[in-house]
Amino acid sequence: MSVLKMGWLSATTTYDGTQLKSEWIQEVSALKGDAIVGFIGPADVPIEHMVDLEDVARNAPIFSESMLHFICEIFDKDLEKMVLRQRMLIAILHETLLQFPQCFKIIRDGDDLYDGDCKLSVSIATSSPISCLIHTGINISRKNTPVLTKGLQDYKMEPKKLGEEVMKRFTKELAEIKQATMKVRPVD
């Protein structure tokens, strides 16, 4: 894996599932290769664009009037490794939120964040013919969601600032992991 590049997309973008494809980040930004981008926009994912087969089986489309989104693409075909990266991204998002007293009740369960019965996030990792991808979204607004949710507005959090901090910490963590693999010698 090369160094993960990061960027912020200033245009409001509706996440509908079609963005979870090879080289979408390169199409919408100047970033080439392994990258993560953050952006703000609604989420409206119909069943036909969903990659989570459990959600498809439950006929559970995703909808939010406003979310902070992250899309990450790494040109590596190891889906298990990408799921581990997805969990790390969620853990970093959780850890970053817990730095604020108003977020102390938020918990992480696998690749989701909750405050009591209220769900805050969605996340999926998948593969494409040439890469692996992650989409993670955290509600900004909880209005009109199909399940009980909370959003960053409930915690008085500024989405862009949070998004940039999470991406910075995620790219740093991946760079440190890469460095750790280069500082050891193999054993017999």
Quick description:
With about 190 residues, the chain is an alpha+beta fold. The chain is built from four helices and eight strands, in the order βαβαβαβββββα.
Q: How would you describe this structure to a colleague?
A:
Helix content is 28%, strand content 28%. The chain is an alpha+beta fold and 188 residues long. The chain has one domain (5-181): BirA Bifunctional Protein, domain 2. It has a five-stranded mixed beta sheet. A three-stranded antiparallel beta sheet has the order 4-5-6, covered by helices on one side. Helix 3 (79-97) packs across helix 4 (159-182). The longest helix is centred in the C-terminal third of the chain and has 24 residues, at 159-182.
Secondary structure blueprint with pairings:
Blueprint: E1 5-8, H1 24-28, E2 35-45, H2 53-57, E3 62-74, H3 79-97, E4 106-109, E5 112-115, E6 118-119, E7 121-127, E8 132-139, H4 159-182
Parallel strand pairs: 1-2
Antiparallel strand pairs: 2-3, 3-8, 4-5, 5-6, 7-8
Instruction: Name the CATH superfamily classification.
Output: Bira Bifunctional Protein, Domain 2
Total beta strand runs: 8
Determine the fraction of residues in helical runs and give it as a percent range.
25-40%
The run of helices and strands is EHEHEHEEEEEH
**How much of the sequence is in beta strands?**
25-35%
The main pleated sheet reads as: 5 strands, mixed
- Gap from first CA to last CA: 25 Å
How many helices in DSSP terms?
A: 4
User: How many domains make up the coordinates?
Assistant: 1
**Radius of gyration, CA atoms, in whole angstroms:** 16 Å
Strand order of the largest sheet: 1-2-3-8-7
The overall pLDDT average reads 94
Helix-strand category: alpha+beta
The third-level CATH topology is BirA Bifunctional Protein, domain 2
Q: What is the name of the CATH class? A: Alpha Beta
Give the overall form.
globular
CATH second-level architecture: 2-Layer Sandwich
Uncertain residue segments:
none
